[in-house]
Amino acid sequence: MTTSFKDRNLLAVIGDEDSITGLLLAGIGHIDEKHEKNFLIVDSKTQISTIENAFERFTERQDIAILLINQHIAEKIRPMVDRYQNAFPALLEIPSKDHPYDPSKDSVLKRVQKLFGE
Question: Class for domain 5-115, per CATH?
Fold first, then answer.
């Protein structure tokens, strides 16, 4: 079954507790009929494989339009993030309270710079 981009109406988030809490308070939380959440809270005990599995799951879901990931967490799975090239869900790296945004690490920004020959 092919899903139209119009059917993509959720945000998904892979982030630290503060980022997830703020976004959940803003109303992005969703649990589907299979009890799958659209977010993963990552802390110092979260295994890399858990983050990778969530990234794969969220990028394969047909109801997600945008995947937000804290940049410092994206660094932990950088090869996967850099390989991801699909338009949907759009992948955006965001800062967190304790880790400021570094444009030199952003995979999307790197691709845009390469496109423009910078």
Answer: alpha beta
- pLDDT, one tens digit per residue, over 38-55 is 999 999 999 999 999 999
- Measured CA distances, 44 to 73, 74, 114 (Å): 10, 14, 33
Tell me what pLDDT residue 71 has.
94
- What angle (nearest 5°) sits at the alpha carbon of residue 75, between those of residues 61 and 81? 35
Secondary structure tally for the chain: helices H, strands E: 5, 4
Euclidean distance between CA atoms 83 and 38, whole angstroms = 21
Kindly report the pTM of this predicted structure.
0.85
What is the rounded distance in angstroms from the CA atom of residue 94 to the CA atom of residue 116? 23
Rounded to whole angstroms, how far apart are CA atoms 97 and 114?
29
Does residue 2 have a pLDDT over 60? no
Two structure tokens written together for 28: 């992005």
Return the structure tokens found at 92: 């955006």
* CA angle 63–53–90, rounded 5-degree value: 40
